[in-house]
Amino acid sequence: MVSGAPVQTAAAAVRFVASDGWWLHVDVDVLDPVAFPAQGLPDVPDEPGGLTIDQLRAALKAATGSGGCVGMSVAIYDPDQDPDGACAHTVVDFIADALQSRVCRSRSRTVCDCSDL
Questions:
Q1: From the CB of residue 68, how many other CB atoms can be counted at a distance below 10 Å?
Q2: Domain 2-116's class?
Q3: Which of 49, 52, 98, 112 is a plausible cystine mate for 60, CB 3.0–4.6 Å?
Q4: How far apart are CA 36 and CA 53, in angstroms?
Q5: Distance CA 43, CA 48 (A)
Q6: pLDDT, tens digit, for every residue of 7-65?
């Protein structure tokens, strides 16, 4: 179960796909609706439980830091459930964290500087 070991699960998933490039897709409805209420579909009851924001952040950083991630998409954010925009800021923050931990695979360098993100 991901919530029990998010970093280890993310690393195992990357090892499983082990290709020259893979795409990371995140549905934010994996998050606990108590911690992140702006997730899910309109007029559909939220599932209780789920990952904490810190667990998702750790899993994303582990996955993107393992190399091979060529792109990322995020879905199931519902702005109607985020009147003050706080959850939107959280999404931007965890995307930025995931991208900053990405490892470049080039001959001239092993770690990206943030200017090329």
A1: 18
A2: alpha beta
A3: 98
A4: 8
A5: 15
A6: 787 777 777 776 678 888 999 999 999 999 999 887 888 888 899 999 999 888 888 88
How many Cβ atoms are within 10 Å of 74's Cβ, its own excluded?
A: 16
Helix or strand (DSSP H, E) at 96: helix 86-100
Q: How far apart are CA 105 and CA 50, in angstroms?
A: 33
For the entire predicted model, the pTM comes to: 0.73
**pLDDT tens-digit series, residues 59-114:** 888 888 877 888 899 999 999 999 999 999 999 998 888 888 654 433 334 444 44
| Cβ-proximal residues to 70 (8 Å cutoff; 6+ apart), any chain | 21, 22, 23
Residue 74 parent element (H or E): strand 69-75
What count of other Cβ atoms lies within 10 Å of the Cβ of residue 30?
18
Contact in structure between 48 and 100 (CB atoms under 8 Å): no
Residue 49's CB is within 10 A of a number of other CB atoms, namely 11
